Amino acid sequence: MRNKSKDKLISLILEKKEDFYRLAYSYVKNSEDALDIVQESIEKAIKAHHSIQDNQSVKSWFYRIVVNTSLDFLRKHKRTSFVDENTLDYYSSGKNDTYQNIDLERSLEELPVKYRTVIILRYFEDLKIHEVAEILNENNNTIKTRLYRALEMLKEKME
Predict the structure, then answer these.
(1) Is pLDDT of 46 > 70?
(2) Residue 6 CB burial class (10 angstroms; 0-12, 13-18, ≥19)
(3) Which of 39, 66, 95, 139 sits at 20 to 30 Å (Cα–Cα) from 132?
(4) Which of 10, 24, 14 is closest to 124 using CA atoms?
(5) Span 70-104, pLDDT tens digits
(6) Helix (H) or strand (E) holding 159
(7) Which domains can be identified in the chain, with CATH numbers?
(8) Other C-beta atoms within 10 Å of 94: how many?
(9) What's the whole-number average pLDDT of the chain?
């Protein structure tokens, strides 16, 4: 059973590696940090693969590890960055804007983490409500409520 869960975990990681990277990146907004988070998540998962009780839940179990590792990273690395005037002028002039939906991106970043996480998992990772609930270790109704509130908050910020 243990080898089956480890094999399933490894094939899931290989199959969904871009999704896990994108999820980590959505938290830290830095490619190197996102890669570190995914790598650390893989290490944690391989060490704890024996704790998987249901092979059907490997996907949500690993998503939960990535989310928790991302949140841990953010807590450990709360930092203020100081930028010189030239760099600030460069970015504020819009020369490097590549986002088509920059307002949505900014509004999403302003949401509290618990609401942003639900939006990211549901709409950007295309997970079902019950999968999001399993990842966040909440019940379905809590996730539905958070999702509704998050969408309302986004709507207000976008208007």
Answers:
(1) yes
(2) middle
(3) 39
(4) 24
(5) 888 988 877 544 445 555 555 554 444 444 566 67
(6) none
(7) 1-79 (1.10.1740.10), 101-159 (1.10.10.10)
(8) 8
(9) 80
Sign of the Cα pseudo-torsion (69, 78, 75, 63, in order)? negative
**Residue 41 pLDDT exceeds 90:** yes
Give ∠ CA 49-61-78 in degrees, rounded to 5: 105
C-beta pairs of 119-122 under 8 Å, 24+ apart in sequence: 119/147, 119/150, 119/151, 119/154, 120/23, 120/26, 121/23, 121/63, 121/67, 122/147
Which pTM does this prediction carry? 0.69
